[in-house]
Structures are given as structure tokens and as C-alpha cells.
Design a protein that fits this description.
Length: about 150
């Protein structure tokens, strides 16, 4: 039995498997062509999948950008509302302080006028005591300042 595949000349790749069996050479060419076709199909499929992934990534990036922009806008709105509320509260508080200070000032002015009137009446009724008391207080202040 003679096996055409057993001889070393028939397995030489450079010979192209053409010695003695054209069907082997044809099979090798068919396999090469099929392998090339499969490689092209794989390359095409890989390219299509890469493009699909790229489009999906771009779409995700756009969605992320839109969400981020929307969140930033909401944050600005919320911050502006809070700032406005704080401004209003501060303005109200300042108004309350102003009213309280005005009332205190008016009360103090009234008390000072009453004290002034009372002091004037006492001095008119007791001029000698007032002058001697003023001299005594002035003398004490002089002694304290000398030291």
C-alpha cells in the first residue's frame, strides 16, 4: 500500500502539495481561502462591535454630560434659593435689631431727660449744697489725678 502522505516530498510546504495529489493542493488552497474569509469576517465583526461599543460609549458620555449639567443647574437653583432665603432672614433680623435699638434709644433719651429735669430741680432748691458738693467732687478728682 502506497500512502501519498507518507513521503517527505509530498509534505513540503514550499512545493505546495502538488506532487502526486492535486486534491491535497486543492484542499490546502480551499483551507487557505476559507481561513482568509474567516479572518475577514472576524475582522469585520470585530470592527462592527468596536464601532457599536464606541457609539455606546459616546452615547453614555452624552447622557452623563446631560445629567451632570442638569444636576449642576439644580444645584445652582438650590444654592440661589438658599442664598435668597438667608438674605431675607438676615434682612428681617437686621430690621428687628434696628427696631429694638431705636426703642432702647428712645427709652434712654426719656430717662436722661427725666434725670436732667430732676437734677435741675434739686439744684434750684438747694444751690448751696450743690455748689459745695461740686467743689468737694472737684477737689477729690484733682487729688486722684495728681497721683
Amino acid at each position: 500500500m502506497s500512502d501519498s502522505f507518507a513521503t517527505p516530498n509530498n509534505l513540503d510546504p514550499e512545493a505546495g502539495f502538488t506532487q502526486g495529489s492535486p486534491s491535497v493542493a486543492q484542499a490546502a488552497n480551499d483551507l487557505r481561502a476559507a481561513a482568509g474569509e474567516k479572518v475577514r469576517e472576524l475582522a469585520s465583526t470585530a470592527s462592527a462591535q468596536a464601532n457599536a461599543l464606541k457609539e455606546k460609549a459616546v452615547e453614555s458620555a452624552h447622557q452623563f454630560r446631560e445629567v451632570a449639567s442638569e444636576k449642576a443647574s439644580q444645584f445652582k437653583t438650590t444654592a440661589a434659593e438658599k442664598a435668597e432665603a438667608l438674605k431675607h432672614a438676615a434682612s428681617e433680623r437686621a430690621h428687628q435689631f434696628r427696631e429694638t435699638a431705636t426703642e432702647q434709644w428712645q427709652d434712654t433719651r426719656v430717662k436722661a431727660k427725666e434725670l436732667h429735669v430732676t437734677a435741675e430741680d434739686y439744684i434750684r432748691q438747694n444751690p448751696t449744697k450743690s455748689v459745695l458738693g461740686a467743689l468737694g467732687v472737684g477737689f477729690l478728682i484733682g487729688l486722684i489725678l495728681r497721683r
